[in-house]
């Protein structure tokens, strides 16, 4: 089996598509997790 450039392009296009779909449908969770991560990181840096 030979992997071509076309196969690699379609693989990354699929990964990107799933990322966009997941971000779109879970937008509230994404925002909540980003805020929590920022606050946790900020608090760790202050220690």
UniProtKB/TrEMBL annotation:
Protein name: Uncharacterized protein
Lineage, opening ranks: Bacteria, Pseudomonadati, Bacteroidota, Flavobacteriia, Flavobacteriales
């Amino acid at each position: 089996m030979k992997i071509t450039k076309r196969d690699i392009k379609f693989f990354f296009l699929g990964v990107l598509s799933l990322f966009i779909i997941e971000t779109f449908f879970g937008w509230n969770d994404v925002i909540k997790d980003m805020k929590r991560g920022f606050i946790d990181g900020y608090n760790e840096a202050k220690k």
